[in-house]
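Box S2. Input/output pair 1.
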Amino acid sequence: MDDALRAHRVARRAVAAQHEPDLGDLVPPVAVDVHGTGVVPVGRVLAAALPRPPAVQ
């Protein structure tokens, strides 16, 4: 592949990446009613879903 074609493809990918929606555009700012606790910020819901590191003894 020559350099001009490679540069053109890289430029097209960069422009396309600028127009992709952010995660914040796709996820509402709050999640509602997690186990009857009411409204919980999404960051806390995502953090609760992550595996926890082993406890240090």
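Box S3. Input/output pair 2.
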Amino acid sequence: MPTMDYIDTNDSKFIFKASRMRYLGICLLFLFSFAGPSWAQDIHLELGPSEIAQNQAFYITIVVKNGQMKSYGTFPEIDGFTKRGASSSTSTNIMNGQMSVSHSIQQSYLPEKQGTFTLKPFSINVNGKKISSQGKTIKVGPPIQRQRRRRSFFDPFGFDDPFREPEPQEYIEVKTDAFIAITPSKTEIYEGEGVNLALEFYVADSGPMPFRLYKINEQLSEIIKAIKPNNAWEENFNLQNPKGEPVQVGKKRFIRYRLFQATYFPLNDEDIEIPSVPLTMSKLKFARRRTFGIQSQKSDLKTFHTKAKTIKVKPLPPYPGDEAVAVGQYRLNEKIGKKKLQTGESTSFGFSISGKGNIAAITPPNIPETDSLNVFPPEISENIKRNNSSVYGYKSFNYYIVAEDPGTYDLSKKFQWVYFDPIREKYDTLSPRITLHVKGESLSPKKTLTDSETDLQDMAMNANNRLKDRNRTDYFLWFMNIALLLVIAFTIGFVMRK
């Protein structure tokens, strides 16, 4: 898979300070050719002619087009021939603005005598692929006289004139479809729901890669500042060494390089506005002719721009509670040390929330206070993972519980964690399915009266006593009145009889 290379910005013109001698130029050409990116390969074998002279060599050549010669196997033996050394070469062709590179390894064979010989069918492993040939018949004839190439007066040693002024070099720009884009994972989200943003460079998968990264760290720093939403939590994927991956855009294949990726969780319901941002790349131009001693490529800067985008943020539905509510898809994992306790005995209780969403924003559940069950503040741990375009993980709350009074305690009524699921578009509550059974004597402190409560009690008792005394007085007065009436009636009756 091709990788995105970096360019030295202090020497963007790739000036080769090389000699004009042929052998050094060949070395430079060889090194340059192997430095190019890897594309769809064409691997085949080429055989020499069917008729050669006794003083001529027969060749078997491995050719790799648009790829590197990473590995190759052993060349076959030919009866009647002596195997000689192998040589390597690289050639570059540019047609209609498209460049292709070929690498070859050539094995030479010298005939031992005249006659007709057979090269049997054979195969060679090249870059892990088995390449086969049907072989051929080779006829070796009498030696022929070779013509010696005449050297010029100014080239007695076979080199070009070092004092000759080089001809102006013409550079060709390889025609390549390329663009840059900021790709959001969603175009509409809820407040608190994550949206993944990826800055990606696309180049057509139809030839060599002419683009190189240019001052990428400085550019990314400015791009991130521009696209980061206000009032949002960021989970940065911290991408390193971007690698190309083939993708389909419409009906055309591209290689995609992901340069930056982060997930943002909006903390309010304001829409996220992503502006258009520029990215400058270095684009190579290649020499039309390979002239030793003259640079074979140079670079120019090309700037691409992304399209502005808007992500709609919807407010959460009304919720009766006043606590903050997490947004995502979550589930509860629970564990407890003991389910049966004696009063005064403690146990551990784990309340772990896992799933997809803003894990860092998860808060512990609100727990009502009671005298019968003491719950101590939890130990908190979290693990956040970022993969593909998702942020997921877990957050654990580990509690210690001490029971003061005997009884049965349903923990689902004490531990409740509410969240909003943006997929189902509804609130949900996570609560454990654990019940504690506690035995023993109550350890809760007895309730004593305060001074004010004692005074109130005394006042109530005094009022009650006064009420009782008043009732006794009322009975006595009634009795005395009745007795007085009886005395008066008796006296009147006695007087009337006389």
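Caption for Box S3: The domain at 326-439 is CATH 2.60.40 (Immunoglobulin-like). Residues 7-39, 149-163, 447-454 have pLDDT under 50 and may be disordered.
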